[in-house]
C-alpha cells in the first residue's frame, strides 16, 4: 500500500515493513529541500505497527547528493537559494538547517529498525542519508564519499555522529577532509556496511534481514536498541545499571506484571 509519493520520495507499507524509496533515478536521486520535506513527512506517516523501515533508491545510484542548483543565485525553483540563505541572520540559517536535518534524524527512532539498501554512488547528502539508518546493506558497486569539505562546506545533515561512531575519529576525519571514495570492500571491512552483496542480490538480502529482525518480540528489540544507542554516552557501570533496568521491565512484562 502506497501512503506517500511526492518530490522524489515514495512510502509504501507491507505489514510490519515500510519501504521509503528515492524515486528520481533520471537525476541520480539528487536531493533538495523538497525531497527533505517529503522524507520528513514519510517519517511522520509511517504507521505505528511498522517495525522495520527500508530505505532504498531506484536506478544505478543511491543518491548523488545535493542538487548543485541550490548553490546558484537563482537556486532551485520554488526554494530559497543557498546563496540567499548565506546572507540571512545566524538564527535563520540555524533554523533552516535544523529543518533539513529532520529528514535524516527520524531514522534513529527507538521503535523502528531502519535499513539502508545502498547501490552505486552515495555522495555527500546521499552518504549522510545512508548513515542515518541503523544498518547498511550495500551492493558491491557502492561508492561512498563525503564531498562537503572539498566544496568548502561541512557535513551538516546528521552524518558526522554515526560516521565517527562506526569507523572512529581518525578515519572519519581522513574520509571527510579528502572527499575520497570508499568502495565496497573498505566499507565492509571498516563497519560502514553491515553486509556487501552482488548488486542483483541487494533486494533479496535486505528482505531476508528485515524478516530476521521481525522474529524477535518488538518490545525486546526496542529495549535493546535503546541500550545500544545510549551505550557510548554511559560509563561501564552506568551501562550495567541500564541493562538491569531494561531487563527488569522485560521480565515484568513477560510475567504480566508490567504497567
What report would you give on this structure?
This protein is of the alpha/beta class and 259 residues long. The chain is built from 10 helices and 10 strands. It has helices at residues 33-45, 82-85, 90-105, 125-132, 160-167, 169-178, 184-190, 202-213, 218-231, 236-254; strands at residues 2-6, 9-14, 17-22, 52-57, 113-118, 121-123, 135-139, 143-145, 182-183, 195-197. Strand 1 and strand 2 (9-14) form a beta hairpin. Helix 1 (33-45) crosses helix 3, helix 5 packs across helix 6 (169-178) and helix 9 runs antiparallel to helix 10 (236-254). 35% of the residues are buried. The model has no long low-confidence stretch (mean pLDDT 95).
Write a brief structural summary.
This protein is of the alpha/beta class.
Secondary structure layout plus pairing:
Blueprint: E1 2-6, E2 9-14, E3 17-22, H1 33-45, E4 52-57, H2 82-85, H3 90-105, E5 113-118, E6 121-123, H4 125-132, E7 135-139, E8 143-145, H5 160-167, H6 169-178, E9 182-183, H7 184-190, E10 195-197, H8 202-213, H9 218-231, H10 236-254
Parallel strand pairs: 3-4, 4-5, 5-7, 6-8, 7-10
Antiparallel strand pairs: 1-2, 2-3, 8-9
Amino acid at each position: 500500500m502506497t501512503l506517500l509519493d511526492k518530490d522524489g520520495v515514495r512510502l509504501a507499507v507491507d505489514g510490519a515493513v515500510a519501504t521509503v524509496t528515492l524515486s528520481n533515478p533520471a537525476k541520480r536521486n539528487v536531493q533538495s529541500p523538497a525531497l527533505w520535506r517529503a522524507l520528513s513527512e514519510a517519517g511522520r506517516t509511517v504507521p505505528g505497527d511498522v517495525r522495520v523501515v527500508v530505505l532504498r533508491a531506484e536506478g544505478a545510484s543511491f543518491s548523488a547528493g545535493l542538487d548543485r542548483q541550490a548553490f546558484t543565485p537563482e537556486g532551485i525553483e520554488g526554494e530559497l537559494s543557498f546563496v540567499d540563505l548565506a546572507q540571512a541572520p545566524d538564527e535563520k540559517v540555524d533554523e533552516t538547517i535544523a529543518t533539513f536535518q529532520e529528514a535524516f534524524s527520524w531514522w534513529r527512532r527507538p521503535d523502528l529498525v531502519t535499513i539502508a539498501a545502498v547501490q552505486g554512488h552515495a555522495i555527500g547528502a546521499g552518504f549522510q542519508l545512508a548513515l542515518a539508518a541503523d544498518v547498511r546493506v550495500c551492493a558491491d558497486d557502492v561508492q561512498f564519499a563525503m564531498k562537503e569539505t572539498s566544496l568548502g562546506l561541512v557535513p551538516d545533515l546528521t552524518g558526522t555522529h554515526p560516521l565517527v561512531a562506526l569507523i572512529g575519529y581518525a578515519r572519519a576525519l581522513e574520509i571527510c577532509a579528502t572527499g575520497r571514495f570508499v568502495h565496497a570492500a573498505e566499507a565492509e571491512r571498516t563497519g560502514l556496511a553491515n553486509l556487501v552483496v552482488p548488486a542483483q542480490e541487494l533486494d533479496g538480502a535486505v528482505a531476508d534481514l528485515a524478516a530476521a529482525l521481525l522474529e524477535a518480540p518488538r518490545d525486546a528489540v526496542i529495549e535493546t536498541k535503546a541500550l545500544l544507542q545510549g551505550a557510548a554516552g554511559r560509563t561501564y557501570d552506568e551501562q550495567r545499571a541500564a541493562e538491569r533496568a531494561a531487563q527488569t521491565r522485560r521480565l515484568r512484562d513477560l510475567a504480566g506484571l508490567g504497567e
